[in-house]
Amino acid sequence: MIRAYKFLMRPTVGQAASLGEMLRDHCGLYNGALQERRDAYRHASKTSIKYGQQSAQLKDIRAYDPERQGRWSFSSQQATLRRLDKAFAAFFRRIKSGETPGYPRFRGVNWFDTVDFPKDGDGCRWDATPHGPVTRVRFQGVGHVKVNQHRRVVGKVKTVSVKREGKRWYVILTAEQPPPEPLPATGSVVGIDMGIASFLTTSNGEHTPNPRHARKAAAKLETAQQALAKFPRRRRDKRTATHQRAVQKVADLHRKVRRQRLDHAHKIAHGLVRDHDFIAHEDLKIRNMSRTVAPKPDPDQPGSFLPNGATAKTGLNRSIADAGWGVFLTILAAKAESAGREVIAVDPHNTSRRCPECGHTTQENRPTQEKFLCVSCGHHAHADTVGALNVLRAGLVRRNANLA
User: Which of 38, 67, 222, 283 is most exposed by smallest CB count within 10 Å?
Assistant: First the structure.
């Protein structure tokens, strides 16, 4: 079993500068490799360059530019080239599936924030010796950096990554460890219905309110973004201290919302995994649900467009993103696997319109967002509870079919 750990690093001023240079040089390597692929395809009879060809050039690149490329780990540079290769592989995969993906883009220095080391001990070294709350990790070209290790790392460290978030630096470890002991069986099963008004509703009728972290921070974030927008373009290019503080303010607010959302998802998922042996949830297509509304051209007035509800859909998309369903379901699946619980995703179609008593399915069964009233048998309940019950039943049917 592979598990990830993320720890805050405490680099010195010099080490922080070296880490920034490492990101900058890896960004230059990424963009150079991307430019080579573009030029080869455009000017060399649509020739495709693969990772193996670019990796073979690393030795010459390091010898030609020892100050910027030769000082860093060879394996980390290979990982950066693999990162570009994965971007192209995803691009072609989406084309084959009929989607319209964007071509891999060049990365700005401020947008390239991660460097990967594929193997502990090759260009980096995680010091597993306990030093109280402070541990150290060594990076080639940077030195030994202090790490605020807030929890013990279990297992053998496989990979190490450096990530910059604003002015903070983090080290991310992946460790291989034996499967944990499963939690004691509770004999309980549950279905969950994801929503906007309530973040989560269980088949037992329990409602978890939606914290709406982004909406609560919207006023502060708007003020910070307005202060950042006041800087003219010519002053932004100078990167003054005042401008950097404005940028940092916006980044801090976004990071706080992200961490609040993660904390909430971890707590809710932990409670579900602790109390239930089997959890069924809707197989939500979040990307499709939050897709932008297509414009409607006005046939009578060329160049004009008809109302298409884009404003309301934009508000709904923001609410979906603020709820963080995808993050929560990913965390739930990981925790369930560690605890020996079973999680099954089911088709959400008509789960909130089907009567759990008689099975009658129609749109009229749900007259309002919260109310469910069966037009056939008269059963009434909260619509989200009805949805969770139907999700649970569909999940049990699917589990029994898999066992058969």
Answer: 67
Rounded to 5°, the CA angle 334-180-147 comes to 75
Contact, 235 vs 243, CB < 8 A?
Answer: yes
Domain boundaries, the chain: 2-176, 189-403
Cβ 203 vs Cβ 278: under 8 Å: no
What is the number of alpha carbons within 13 Å of residue 345 lying toward its C-beta?
A: 10
pLDDT score of 291 more than 60: yes
Buried b (16+ CB within 10 A) or exposed e, 325-338: bebbbebbbbbbbb
Q: What pLDDT, in 10s, does the model give residues 59-92?
A: 999 999 999 999 999 999 999 999 999 999 999 9
Output the CA torsion sign for 214, 217, 220, 224.
negative
User: For the whole model, what pTM was predicted?
Assistant: 0.85
pLDDT in tens, 318-364: 888 999 999 999 999 999 998 999 999 999 998 989 998 898 999 99
Pairing outcome for strands 189-194 and 278-282: parallel
SS3 letters across the chain: CEEEEEEEEECCHHHHHHHHHHHHHHHHHHHHHHHHHHHHHHHCCCCCCCHHHHHHCHHHHHHHCCCCCCCCCHHHHHHHHHHHHHHHHHHHHHHHCCCCCCCCCCCCHHHCCEEEECCCCCCEEECCCCECEEEEEEECCCEEEEEECCCCCCCEEEEEEEEEECCEEEEEEEEECCCCCCCCCCCCEEEEEECCCEEEEECCCCEEECCCHHHHCHHHHHHHHHHHHCCCHHHHHHCCHHHHHHHHHHHHHHHHHHHHHHHHHHHHHHHHHHHCCEEEEECCCHHHHCCCCCCEECCCCCCCEECCCHHHHHHHHHHHHHHCHHHHHHHHHHHHHHHCCEEEEECCCCCCCECCCCCCECHHHCCCCCEEECCCCCCEEEHHHHHHHHHHHHHHHHHHHHHC
- Token pair in block for residue 348: 């959400």
For helices 241-275 and 325-339, what crossing angle results, to 10°? 50
